[in-house]
Structures are given as C-alpha cells and as structure tokens.
Design goal:
Layout (H helix, E strand, L loop, with lengths): L2 H9 L11 H6 L2 H15 L8 H18 L40 E2 L18 H9 L13 H14 L4 E9 L2 H4 L6 E7 L1 E3 L7 E5 L8 H4 L3 H7 L33 H24 L5 H28 L3 H12 L3 H8 L29 H6 L9 E5 L13 E6 L5 H11 L1 H9 L18 E4 L5 E6 L1 H11 L5 H7 L15 H10 L9 H7 L10 H16 L10 H4 L1 H8 L4 H8 L1 H7 L29
Antiparallel strand pairs: 1-5, 2-3, 4-5, 6-7, 8-9
Helix pairs in contact: 3-4, 4-12, 5-17, 5-19, 6-10, 10-11, 11-12, 11-23, 24-25
Length: 643
C-alpha cells in the first residue's frame, strides 16, 4: 500500500467532520499537516483557542502557524538559481535592502514584488460592485468617535504608521482612475468625485502569477523609515560625522533650505509619525556615541553601520514584545510574542545560556537562530499583509494637547489645554505645528489620549477629503477619499474578499451575517449594501465588523496574517538570526538591544523625566494615566483566560 493510499485511508473517516471548503487542500497536505489541521479545525469549530489555558493556546497557535508557513507563503516573480552572495561581504544592512538573503540578492530590496498569502482573486469585473463610495459612506464613515478605552493610545496609532512607512508602499502608475459618488450617497460624501493613480501592474515572468506589484520600500525590518530605501536618500539623512544622522537642535527632524523634512520616508507624514522618526534618529545618534566611546578606532562608516543594526533591532523588539502585546492584550499573546523573541524558556534562560539551537525557534525564539528560515519562499511582505494593516480608524478627529507645566493629578493625569484638528497636523501644517508644540508636549499629549477603535462607522471623515502626497512629500493636486480608495485598492490588487480570505487562511467562512456580528443595524446595512450576499463582503469591512476576541484591538481574521508574518519578519532576516552576534553588532551594540524591553526604555534614555512625571501605565502604548499591570503570582504558561 502506497503512502498516499494510507494517508487517504486514515483521512476518510474525518472528511465528514472537515468543512467542505477544505477537502481539496487537506488532500494535498502531508500526513503530519493533516493531523495539525484536524486539531486546529476542531478548536476553530468550538471557537476555543483564546479561552484555553495559555500553554495550550500557544500549542494551537504553533500548529496554525506551521500550516500557514507551509500553505500561505506564495512567491511572486522569478527566483534566481545558481547565484550566491557571501554574507561576509555584507555584514551590514545595505541601503536598498539587497544581499540579506545569500541565495537571492534581491529578496526584500527596494522595488521587489509584494508576495501573497493566498492566490489572487481577479476582481477587475467587480471593481465597483458595490460602489466603493457607497461602502465607505454606509459602513465605514465615522458617525461618532469610538475609542479603545485605556488599552491603546495615540503613540500606538502613530507607531503602526511608523512601521508601515518602514515596510510597504506600492509603486504607482501614471494612469489615473476617477470614482464618482452615486446619487444615493453623494450628499454625504465630502468629495463628489476624486482621481487617483492606478497601482502599477508589472509582469512577473512567471507562469503561475503572471503580474504583480512592486514595493517602493524595503520590507525588511531595517529602519528604512529613518534611513531611506536607497543610497540617494541615505546620503541626504547622514551627517558623515561619527556615523550620525541629521537632527535639529530642538530634537525634531531636520528640514532643508526649502522647508522639506530630511528623513528616510517623507510621504504622507503627520506630527505623530515625525515624532517617532525624530526619537529613533536620537536613538541612532546616541548608539553612535556609545560605540565611539567603547571602540574609538571605529570610523564614520562603521559607526553608522553598527548603529543602524542596533537601532533597527530595537525597533523590531519594541514592536514585538511591547506594541503587539498591547494590541492583543491577553496572557496568551504576551507569552506568544515574548516567545517569538526569547523562546519558551524565556529571557533569563537565554541571557544566561545563550540561544538553544535544538528545536529551531521553540526554546530560544527566532532571534539568534543558527540560520535564517524562509520556508522555501523568498522573503517579502504580502498584499494580504498590506490589507490587514489598514488601520486609519485609530486616528481621532482632534489631538488633545495637555498642560505639562502643572503638577499632575491622580494617576499622573494632566488637564487639557486645547484641541487641534487632525487636518492641522498632517503634511506641511503638521510639521509646522509640531515645531510649535515641541517634542515633549506632543509625546505626552499622545500618551494621554486614547486612539480610535477598529470598528464599523469609525473611519475619520476628514480622511475622506485628504491631500495626498507624492514620494517626495509634495502635495498632490487631487484630494482623495481614502476610505473609498482603500476598498478599491484591495479589489484592484486581487486581494480576496472576506469569505475567500478566510478560506485561504484555513478559517471557517461565514454562512450568514449573524456569524460575523451581533449588531442588528450592521447586519441590516450589510444586507442592503451587499445585496444580502456574504460572498461579496469586502475584506476591510469584514475585519471591522467581526466580533473581536476579548482584549484584541483587531479581528481574529487579521491576527492570523500577523501570526505568520510577524514570525517571518524575524526568522527570514539573517541580521536577526545567523548574524545576530557580537561580531556583526559589536558586544556593546548587542548588549544595547538585549537590555531594551520597551518603548518606555527608549524614552527613558532620551527624556528621563517623561515617564517618571507623566506615565503611570506599564507600557508607553497604553493611555498614560491608566493603572500599571498588577502583579500576577500565577506563572504565565499556567494562566487561564477569564471566561
């Protein structure tokens, strides 16, 4: 009896249990993956994983991630064969992201292809079905601002834009498209019509996925948001003295003689993003000072290269074990994200004994693995990843400025002085207002303000009449309706709609609107907009409508993309794996990364009075006057979520 026949024989009793939409892919799986799928599918049917004790929740997530690594990483474009670069020739992050992968010099570089987590679904016959402006008006546009309570603040909202500007930006075509508001919603649309550039479609030279889209940014976790994506931008931001980057005397991003900001990414900025760019330029420059003192023989170029490695790793670590933990505020995710960096044995064990290379990343995490792992698919970020990071609902209508000149109240709370409309904090106006407000007041104010919830009817209306910018940070003539444009972009780029997306991620699709939400008004509106066809539901709308896991600021559907891609950003990068060592980073540089645990640590280095005076919360990403996390005597892996 052949192995295939044996597998089919063992699988046949379970086919009636497995959802019919997964029969085909299950037949293609290995016997081990069949077993893992059955476990995952069983738990999914009971909607159980987030209610399991922490250790068992981690086992579920590990099994699910393994399946996604096998079946949800799809290359776009040709993969070179027989070409190999020597990592020793490039012991630093290159300006354009090349030569990170020794077997594929272009992987993760500027203008490389976006990959896929599932096969594209052509929607060019349905680009306006239903009309994007109808969807935006009836299901997305903010009615009344809904926030996240004390869980997530405006620094957290700014942080994810900081990351997106590090990772992703589609190359655009010169051809323009125009969307016009249908009569039924025209009176409610800030713009009756708007024009925008198509995403540039590029032949891949490959038979399976014939065309794809190019990423202007380097998708590695390389700090390109402050360093740039190519040598030309890098030259603009460097001082060429002691390895440092340009920074104004007031601690903010420097401007050129024309008033343009000098930074790695200057497109579609706002005051919150500029603030984080400035903070990590400060971080880079302090690392240069420390390294120069420790290793006086190092020249400008070496200081820059080492400081960039260190600063990029600090950014990645803050995102992994601080920002994401606040976004997904459960004990299971606290354990899971720390395991990504430190492994199941934890920080103390790793600091004492080093990385345990038995079991891959299980015991000591992805960081410091013996060699990078891309699961046979060249590294990229994906179109689906872009979609789940559409989080503009996080932004409020106004920024609340706090009085930092008075004695803080209970829980270090601060009185409100005034509110600034968000329109005054974007683009050129944002740069000017930030200079007037100053670094400290802006950071403290964002820390004390909750950001918006990722829900239906919470998309900022001011972003439906938005001045967009080109790649050089120049305002474009045509205003855009960003809410409508985001619906259009997913369809244009052949990202599957909600139900097909869930099938692609091995999640049970919804069969009725009640599977998605309990909100009766939402169900009624969804039926109206989508002609009562759940298969037509746009992914972005589904992600906002979906019932959320307790403690999650995002939907479970979005989270499963995070699950595979958050690991991939670390495990596929040799500077977090085989080159995460003292030889590459220097001993002092590696120590700097290893002793940084949070954004709070970074702020304490540069503004030591800030947390002490104005931050009561445990994390800089929670609202600052919230209570710190209470001590829990139960070991993390043995905790049970509240039912």
């Amino acid at each position: 009896m052949s192995l295939i026949m044996l597998k089919n024989l063992l699988l046949s009793p379970f086919l009636s249990f497995i959802h019919k939409d997964f029969h085909e892919i299950v037949k293609r799986m290995t016997l081990v993956d069949n077993f893992l799928f059955l476990i995952v599918h069983f738990v999914d049917k009971l909607n159980l994983w987030h209610r399991l004790p922490v250790f068992f929740g981690l086992l579920y997530l590990g099994a699910r991630r393994r399946l996604h690594q096998q079946y949800n990483l799809i290359n776009v474009g040709r993969t070179p064969t027989g070409v190999r670069s020597n990592p020793a020739d490039f012991p630093y992050r290159t300006a354009d992201g090349k030569y990170n992968d020794p077997f594929n010099e272009g992987a993760g570089s500027e203008f490389s292809f976006f990959g896929r987590n599932m096969m594209p679904v052509d929607q060019h016959e349905k680009l306006k079905k239903p009309d994007p402006m109808v969807v935006a008006t009836k299901l997305l546009a903010r009615r009344k601002f809904v926030d996240t309570g004390k869980q997530f603040n405006m620094i957290a909202a700014s942080w994810i834009q900081f990351m997106v500007h590090d990772w992703i930006d589609h190359l655009e075509d010169t051809q323009q498209i125009e969307l016009r508001a249908p009569k039924e919603v025209a009176s409610e649309c800030p713009l009756k019509s708007f024009k925008f550039n198509k995403t540039k479609e590029t032949p891949t030279g490959f038979y399976e996925i014939k065309t794809g889209y190019l990423n202007r940014r380097t998708p590695w976790w390389d700090g390109s948001v402050i360093y740039g994506n190519n040598a030309e931008v890098l030259e603009k931001v460097r001082t060429f003295r002691d390895g440092k980057l340009k920074l104004s005397e007031n601690g903010l991003i420097q401007q050129d003689e024309n008033g343009k900001i000098i930074s790695g990414d200057v497109r579609n900025t706002w005051a919150g993003l500029l603030l984080l760019q400035a903070l990590f330029v400060q971080e880079h420059n302090v690392v240069c000072d420390v390294l120069k003192k420790e290793y006086p023989e190092l020249e400008d170029e070496d200081l820059y290269r080492h400081a960039r490695l260190v600063t990029s790793a600090v950014i990645a670590k803050v995102h992994t074990i601080d920002w994401t933990v606040e976004l997904l505020k459960t004990d299971t995710m606290l354990a899971g994200m720390r395991a990504n960096w430190y492994g199941l044995l934890g920080k103390k064990f790793k600091d004492t004994f080093g990385h345990v290379n038995v079991g891959g990343s299980v015991f000591s995490g992805f960081v410091g693995m013996k060699k990078p792992e891309n699961h046979g698919v060249p590294y990229s970020l994906t179109e689906e990843f872009v979609t789940v990071y559409r989080m503009h609902q996080l932004l409020p209508d106004k920024l609340q400025l706090r009085n930092i000149d008075v004695t803080p109240g209970p829980n270090k709370s601060l009185p409100l002085t005034n509110e600034i409309p968000m329109e005054e904090l974007i683009g050129g106006k944002g740069k000017e207002n930030l200079s007037r407000i100053g670094f400290t007041k802006q950071m403290v104010s964002m820390g004390h303000q909750a950001c918006g919830a990722l829900d239906l009817w919470n998309y900022p209306v001011w972003m439906r009449d938005l001045v967009a910018q080109d790649v050089d940070g120049n305002d474009r003539q045509d205003h855009i309706d960003l809410a409508s444009l985001e619906i259009y972009r997913d369809r244009e780029r052949s990202v599957p709609r909600y139900n097909d997306f869930r099938r692609g991620m091995l999640q049970i699709p919804i069969s009725k609107w009640e599977d998605l939400t309990d909100n009766e008004e939402a169900i009624e509106t969804l039926r109206e907009v989508y002609d009562d066809d759940v298969e037509e539901l746009d992914l972005l709308v589904g992600l906002m409508a979906e019932k959320k896991i307790e403690g999650f600021a995002i939907s479970e559907t979005a989270f499963f993309i995070f699950l595979v891609m958050a690991a991939r950003r670390l495990e596929a990068d040799r500077f977090f794996t085989s080159n995460y060592n003292e030889e590459t980073y220097t001993k002092k540089g590696l120590e700097w990364v290893n002793t940084t645990e949070s954004l709070k640590d970074v702020l304490n280095r540069h503004y030591p009075e800030m947390a002490e005076k104005w931050m009561n919360s445990s994390s800089a990403f929670s609202v600052w006057d919230s209570s710190p996390e209470p001590h829990n005597p139960i070991p993390l892996y043995f905790r049970v979520p509240k039912q």
